[in-house]
């Protein structure tokens, strides 16, 4: 089980001007850390302590009922953020290529159409949650939303790309302008790491 937050491969201010340093630091050291602390407390002295987080989340019904909600909420928060930090990075203006692009094109027709479809999905999400690009057991890609800290793992999907649309991910810089945050977020997606998730 994860005992500490994963180290970021970039500094808090490396995503400027798209995501500001204060948001990055607060998001990582306060919000993400709180999910990890609460997960650690929830699974203390249970058999889940020795399991990998992904293995816990793919079988939600195997989690003892007395701690299930706490584990899914906080474990989802840890997993989702671990993925989120990994698939963003300093802006390089890249786009996907190879097999990843081929699968995106198969799903949406073109990369631009995918960006439009994904953005529309993120804007349609009511309240707090995540927008995802996931891979199904059939190998095909799909865009989906989850509420709060729910993760596609529990629904049998492999997450490839995650956009955090909780207000804490953007409010310090963008206030209520979620559309501006989403539009700028595309500038910091690390498509090489997304492709590794697919592979």
CA radius of gyration? 17 Å
Largest sheet: 3 strands, antiparallel
What's the CATH H-level superfamily name of the largest domain? Answer: Iron/manganese superoxide dismutase, C-terminal domain
Question: What CATH architecture label of the largest domain applies?
Answer: 3-Layer(bab) Sandwich
Helix-residue proportion: 40-55%
Which residues form runs of ≥5 with pLDDT under 50?
A: none
Q: Outline of this structure?
A:
By secondary structure, the protein is mainly alpha-helical. The protein has helices at residues 21-43, 53-57, 65-86, 98-108, 111-124, 171-174, 178-185, 191-198, and strands spanning 129-135, 141-147, 158-164.
What does this entry look like structurally?
The protein is mainly alpha-helical. The chain has 2 domains: 20-86, Fe,Mn superoxide dismutase (SOD) domain (Helix Hairpins, Orthogonal Bundle); 98-198, Iron/manganese superoxide dismutase, C-terminal domain (minor pseudopilin epsh fold, 3-Layer(bab) Sandwich), CATH 3.55.40. The chain is built from 8 helices and 3 strands. The protein has helices at 21-43, 53-57, 65-86, 98-108, 111-124, 171-174, 178-185, 191-198, and strands at 129-135, 141-147, 158-164. The protein has a 3-stranded antiparallel β-sheet. Helix 4 crosses helix 5 (111-124). The relative contact order is 0.16.
């Amino acid at each position: 089980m994860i005992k500490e937050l994963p180290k970021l491969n970039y500094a808090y201010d490396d995503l400027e001007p798209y995501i500001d340093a204060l948001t990055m630091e607060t998001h990582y050291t306060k919000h993400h850390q709180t999910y990890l602390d609460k997960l650690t407390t929830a699974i203390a002295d249970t058999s889940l302590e020795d399991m990998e987080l992904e293995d816990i989340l793919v079988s939600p019904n195997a989690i003892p009922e007395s701690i299930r909600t706490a584990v899914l909420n906080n474990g989802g928060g840890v997993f989702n953020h671990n993925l989120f930090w990994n698939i963003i990075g300093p802006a390089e203006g890249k786009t996907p290529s190879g097999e990843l692009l081929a699968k995106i094109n198969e799903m949406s027709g073109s990369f631009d159409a995918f960006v439009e479809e994904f953005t529309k999905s993120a804007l349609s999400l009511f309240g707090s949650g995540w927008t995802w690009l996931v891979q199904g057991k059939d190998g095909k890609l799909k865009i989906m939303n989850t509420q709060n800290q729910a993760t596609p793992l529990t629904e049998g999907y492999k997450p490839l790309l995650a956009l955090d649309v909780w207000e804490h991910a953007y409010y310090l810089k963008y206030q209520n302008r979620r559309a501006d945050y989403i539009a700028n977020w595309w500038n910091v997606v690390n498509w090489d790491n997304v492709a590794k998730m697919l592979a």
